[in-house]
Design a protein that fits this description.
Length: 264
Amino acid sequence: TPAKGNGWHLLGNPYASAIKWNDGSWALSNVSATAKLLNGGGSYTDLADNDIIPAMQGFFVKVSDATNSITIPASARTHSTTTNILNKASQQEKLVLKASSIGNSTYVESTVKTNANATNGFDADYDANFLAGMYGAPQLYSIITNNQLSTNTIAPITSNLAIPMGFVAGLATNYKITADGLSNFTSCSAITLEDLKTNTTQNLMQNPVYNFTAATTDNANRFVLHFATAVGVNEIGNSNGSIYAYDNNIYINAGEQIKQISVY
């Protein structure tokens, strides 16, 4: 119930060795497919299938029903302390946004990745609900149908897509958002981050680090993550204006306010 953790449970690795989370031999009943580990930034890192849970490590899971169960098999034990490289390589499109505080060592990660079996709505089998970290740590999450997600798994991108992103400052200070995994999105001509507070847009493929200032009283609905495809360019509606290039300059005559200009 919401009054008692909203479905989150703290479990522990019962073995003296590391284990591979949900490697195919676990039995999960009404339990999310993503687990969480507290990281050094005061927030939580999502664990996908085959990610490593160290020995004697606590981890969080989220249940979707009061009737639930989880079985951790002995076959999940491993001597490895790193994530299965082959499993990571199979994730062709995975973008990790890391919001770090300049004033202290706190940070938070938010993931957007594609899967042919997922939809652009909430998928209990592929998406992971956001869990706020320790006091003073920032919060960054996708917003899908009123769900705050730390991992947002979407269908393969075939047209322009915009994903609202929430951000809550842990402290009033300077922050930076760093994007990792941009080169994996080969179907995208641009991935941009729109800051609704400052009314600015930055192409993360050209500059993967966005610097900004935030206060604890800011509106949490601050960012929008845009995925642009070559196909999407032709879907933009016509307007009463003109655009032409001459002598290395681009000239635009528009009959309305220009919100964004993209050059391909």
